[in-house]
Amino acid sequence: MSKDVPKNVGAYGVRPHPKTGGFRGFNTNLITLRPYQLEVARAVADSVVNRRGLTFSVEIARQGGKNELSAQLEVLLLTLFIQRGGNAVKCSPTFKPQTVISMMRLRERLNDWGYSRIWKTEMGYILRLGNARQIFLSADESANVVGNTAHILLEVDESQDVSKEKYTKEFKPMGAATNVTTVHYGTTWDDSTLLEEVKQLNLELERKDGIKRHFRFAWQDVAMYNPYYLSYVQVEKERLGGSHPLFLTQYCLEPVHGGGGFLSTQQLAQLQGTHTRRHEPKPSRTYVAGIDLAGTAEETGDAALHSARPMQDSTVITIGELDFSVCSDIVPLPQVNIVEHYCWTGKPHVEQYPQLLDVLKNVWRVKRAVVDATGVGAGVASFLCGALGTVIVPFLFTQASKSRLGFELLAAINSGRTKMYARDASEECREFWFQIVKAKSTFRANQTMDFYVDPAVGHDDFLSSLALLVEAARYTPRSARGHVREAAL
Predict the structure, then answer these.
(1) pLDDT at 12 over 70
(2) What dotted CATH number matches 2-235?
(3) DSSP H helical segments within 35-137, as ranges?
(4) What are the sequence ranges of the domains in the chain?
(5) Alpha carbon distance 266, 314 (integer Å)
(6) What is the pTM of this model?
(7) Is the pLDDT score of 224 beyond 70?
(8) Is CATH 3.40.50.720 what the domain over 258-488 is classified as, yes or no?
(9) CA angle, residues 55, 61, 67, in degrees to nearest 5
(10) How far is Cα 333 from Cα 86, in angstroms, rounded to an integer?
(11) Residue 293 CA, distance from chain mean position
(12) Cβ partners under 8 Å of residue 61, min gap 6
């Protein structure tokens, strides 16, 4: 192997072992990787240099340094192959911003290594060092990538977001003729992703031959070397809650399982408050509202998104009272206590207009109301905007926006920021809890989710109205120039 290694490679911190061809270590003056990153880098470099053709899976908690590991590894391999040449290929789910960011990071690390006047750019997506090239490609479904060959390394960034079919048909064959070493980076999501599939195969192979192929470093592993990261994750845990899907997947590296209940027994208990329901506001209190309009099933083409609600669903208004005393630097949002529900079934929108306006403007004098403005709901939202101005915030349901709404609702419940009034004998209270208990969740690729009530069971009007209320609660009064002004967060 020595004839394939540049004479000055030792100056860049990598020395081939005289007997095994492996690596003794890195020059820490040039490569500042943490021990867990070095463990991965050594394994990958050994597979490349000794042509083992192994496939690795690397799970590192969000912001734990997987991109830095990848960039440093790319510089190392470009150095090793600077004379012999060859292509290394890296793909990301999207070209902008993910692929672009990877290219920028590699440029910076090449400069750090003293290559600022040596490396070149080709065709806008290739960085060349001597005879070696690092090619950056998009793994988007529409990207045309066929024809590239990976001689040195094939990297798949955010592998959990890359289509299995795209990878199998177009990227994996790039290394077939060269027995290329492959690395899948990412954070876990659900048990159906490409990353999870590669991970499970690697664990099975490890049990058979003892060669480590899967590397997993959760947030605790990263925090051992970075106290600032520890503080950051602790804040995220308090903000989202330890059982939040994003915290579990991005930091704990625990996959979620779709098709289950939206709220756990613990979360249902947290949602239950002790305050009594009220039919009118208290003086000097701040109120907001979430409004789900009847007959506005989200028109996205995704049956699960709008849960195919049958006709004759209801318009539901959920009124919340804000408590700013719980605001902190960690969670600068108020608590929202649900104090009232309105539910109108079978009433045409034209008949709802005056009553909606009266409830929001004259009865509760709400400071912010988030209204479902999807489909025919756009007309109602426009009417309310015309009457109440910036108090009304139209909300357009899409897969992405509803997913964000669901995650925010979970965070609000987990942190104790949302409480339902004490149970009473009303039909509204009964229906609210029925929908909340029956609500299900489905997790999709790209860290998105859906929450809904099975249409065979019932409606999701109260559930959607609650989520919109939490969005409305992203509001706080602020003091400016000696007087109080209200502003939405």
Answers:
(1) no
(2) 3.40.50.300
(3) 35-49, 66-80, 100-112
(4) 2-235, 258-488
(5) 28
(6) 0.71
(7) yes
(8) no
(9) 65
(10) 53
(11) 28
(12) 187, 217, 218, 219, 221, 222, 233, 250, 251, 252, 253
